[in-house]
């Protein structure tokens, strides 16, 4: 995580200084990075769970701190960039209620679950900034809460940086449909400013001028925030000669460097979790698997690589292409199989497109122009699919991100006759100021055209949708022209369709019957789950999930593929936990790949082939049903997450398999009897007893004395070790007083006397008590909050 943070910061620095050279002062080119999201994924229905580090406060802190340190650099005088952990505090859905919700957690839950990762981000990570949340806490908007921003953040934790609001959060103070906390904008901005919110994302702080004139706030009070903000700029080196600011020399070659590309690949490989491997079907032998059917809506999906709040990958590798690269001696058969959700559009698959009549190649001939669709194209190639995200990026060398055009030509053929709905899709843009033009021709007849004469401020869907009736399955000539002009935002093009699910299913079954093994890429899409989205379809609402099931059309796809009798590997791509009960019972293997980034397809292919031995662990509980959970709007931690859930999960937090096996020797404790305040050392030896080299993630769980509010058990340490076949390594953990402490009803953290248990293994002890060791603590010691 530290390396990832450093890579992000290096690229941000390179782009910042390049933007200055071009007199580009627009949003998204600055040096304050609004990351990481360290809210606790208390409920897998939350659509923004994909941005977080999971459901555990200790894990979240351990991931966040090095990421923050990587972002900010290690220079004694200057920040590389400034990290902004968010959203402070007690914020994790539902998205539809976040602008008006008042959360009243118990003191125990506040200090035991919701605040520890923020404390670590500030006291250990030394984050230079922080973002406050939309919701209210104990009756006060989070961005106007003196308890959170002054008492806890600045007094208790010694925070010296600046605070920014979430976008539009100050408006929520006085909006009657939101908190309705303040009578008007003037009073709202004064409340936020005095609580310590130094800068506002939005326009609310324009009311500060009126508030000063009305005598609601003094200029000297504004100076407090101004000083913090200018100090941050000074610490970024914005007022100093570039020659003395070490990070100002960052070359643009850092962007998409080979080292960063390899890091993205490594991150994707290490994130993959092997959930099931019946009969050791995985890894598939590239030398002996003659044919593979790659099926599913995420097999060739760009958005399923990117997730949300993504940068633009220059060379994204979708799973289908990753499988092809890993199994070059095998025949790879592809079928889309199903949409993510019935009636929801997805990109037209390559199987429907040919660059010319009679070609065996998939895709369309693409001509890229540096300006209008005139003259000689700068690049001509075959694009297998029209699913592109070029926001703030040039599509090919020789073109500009500000202005370019593309012409695609070839043929399109439907899997069966009938009426098909299509849509021209564009990436989301903020702000939209781009001029988009497109024309679609079928059999030389203009089907639809968009000719805006002024910058596009929104993306009206009705202007990009069309329907075509096909009387046959023969190829029809297709030509698409796309022109883009903007000040660096919003470029991209996607040709979507909504075919009859039965047509896709028939294709998938034909591919499955002709293959030795099926690899099904199912799951969700960031077009369905994410931040406050205008989505309300079965299973989803406003960006959140309303249940945990795999959408029905995908579940049916798996069931029908299962009837072929061919061995099936299910690869999940999704933002948080799914209740994949059928797959657990019937699939031969399950891989959880998440939204894995630009190199995700490569990492998946390498994992299927065995070049990568998976060692990822689940950072969240996979439940069997939404019925296992309390109400989504209930912020109580009772019966939530592995620490407090007493049911049987589908897959537990910390779970993950390997292609090899590991043995743990007995634990050695520094003492079996401690006095409160003493540290405990825990050591063991891990041995790779299998035939393959691999990584093992050793996890230490602490089980405190039983009480009505203490967690059943809690992760207190983990480490990843690489072991060759037959190799052994010693792992050691040291638990200090904070690690050994628990939180009382009143929110006080202390080391309590009593009988404790500790275990180190590759997952939770659950129903197996082997390797669990007991120790006792005498006395009591409070720990600073």
Automatic annotation (TrEMBL):
Its EC number is 3.2.1.21. Gene3D superfamilies: Glycoside hydrolase family 3 C-terminal domain (3.40.50.1700), Glycoside hydrolase, family 3, N-terminal domain (3.20.20.300), Immunoglobulins (2.60.40.10). InterPro entries: BXL (IPR044993), Fn3-like (IPR026891), GH (IPR017853), Glyco_hydro_3_C (IPR002772), Glyco_hydro_3_C_sf (IPR036881), Glyco_hydro_3_N (IPR001764), Glyco_hydro_3_N_sf (IPR036962), Ig-like_fold (IPR013783). It comes from the Bacteria. It is an enzyme of class 3 (hydrolase). GO terms for molecular function: alpha-L-arabinofuranosidase activity; beta-glucosidase activity; xylan 1,4-beta-xylosidase activity. Coiled coil: none annotated. Keywords: Glycosidase, Hydrolase, Signal. Pfam families: Fn3-like, Glyco_hydro_3, Glyco_hydro_3_C, PA14. The keyword Signal applies. Residues 359-513 form the PA14 domain. GO terms for biological process: arabinan catabolic process; xylan catabolic process. PANTHER family: BETA-D-XYLOSIDASE 5-RELATED, SUGAR HYDROLASE-RELATED. Belongs to the glycosyl hydrolase 3 family. This is Beta-glucosidase. It comes from Tunturiibacter lichenicola.
